[in-house]
Design a protein that fits this description.
Elements: H1 17-33, H2 45-60, H3 65-83, H4 87-106, H5 113-126, H6 137-151, H7 160-181, H8 186-197, H9 199-214, H10 227-236, H11 245-269
């Protein structure tokens, strides 16, 4: 619904996570019938499904921040323990699995931005040389692309918390799988490429948390101070762009993501 933190003047559904998940699991079920050589197990999608349900609940009937964090931390611990017995890696994995879904959720303030970021990140992991063979990325990219059509400015539907948490958890898990799979000189380059490609949600989240603490607010207090909000308001004031700035802005964001994608791949292939 419209409000002081909303850019859309009219009500827009936040239930985009439902068609996204249905599209993905339909394609994923086909992979299970013809698995081939895979570096994944179906268990990895169970925690993502749990955070999806929590996000969907929040889209319909808002949950408290502590409740959402409790669910995310619990499933992150479970996933981290299954991924690696190493205590240090497990601690890092828990922090990463909690951080990235929330960071991506912050991006859902500009039509198409969240899904565009996820699409480029998935493409990076799919084409990563010597990386884990993550063929399940194909149906996920298809679902993201399909939802993006309806989330393109002006959006007819929002991804919602369900999509952000689900996609963020899967992306975080994909990064960890590649981290554990790459045991050579490519590992530091893959890590650097991942942080480069996800530079916007990572930096925006860190700056937002610091800004709110400095201002004496709760780090979880929502506002319109994110990077994409500043860019949105700046672009909306340019003369001659009144009707096209949401679409133009999304194009510019994708150009940035594409440049980061090319740089990340260049780093890995060096």
């Amino acid at each position: 619904m419209p409000g002081e933190r909303k850019i859309h003047p009219e009500p827009v559904s936040r239930l985009g996570g439902i068609p996204l998940s249905l599209g993905f699991f339909s394609g994923f079920s086909i992979l299970l019938l013809h698995p081939g050589k895979q570096h994944f197990s179906p268990w990895m999608f169970l925690p993502a499904l749990v955070v999806f349900v929590a996000g969907l609940w929040d889209d319909v009937r808002p949950l408290s921040v502590p409740a959402k964090l409790l669910v995310q931390i619990a499933v992150s611990i479970w996933t981290a323990v299954l991924l690696s017995p190493n205590f240090g890696i497990a601690i890092f994995a828990v922090c990463w699995l909690v951080f990235l879904p929330n960071a991506l959720n912050f991006l859902d303030g500009w039509d198409g931005l969240l899904l565009s970021q996820v699409f480029w990140a998935l493409l990076y992991f799919l084409l990563l040389p010597d990386g884990a063979q993550l063929n399940w990325i194909f149906p996920l990219m298809g679902s993201v692309s399909g939802l993006l059509i309806f989330n393109f400015p002006r959006a007819k539907i929002f991804p919602g918390d369900a999509s952000a948490y689900f996609l963020g958890f899967i992306l975080a898990t994909a990064a960890l799988l590649n981290f554990l799979h790459l045991q050579n000189h490519s590992l530091p380059k893959m890590v650097l490429g991942t942080f480069l490609l996800l530079s916007i949600p990572i930096s925006d989240t860190l700056f937002s948390l610091i800004r709110r603490i400095v201002q004496g607010k709760s780090p979880f207090h929502p506002d319109l101070g994110h990077i994409h909000h500043h860019f949105y308001f700046w672009l909306s004031k340019r003369k001659g762009l009144e009707k096209i700035y949401p679409k133009m802005g999304l194009v510019l964001w994708n150009i940035y993501f594409a440049i980061c994608f090319l740089m990340a791949n260049w780093l890995v292939e060096r």
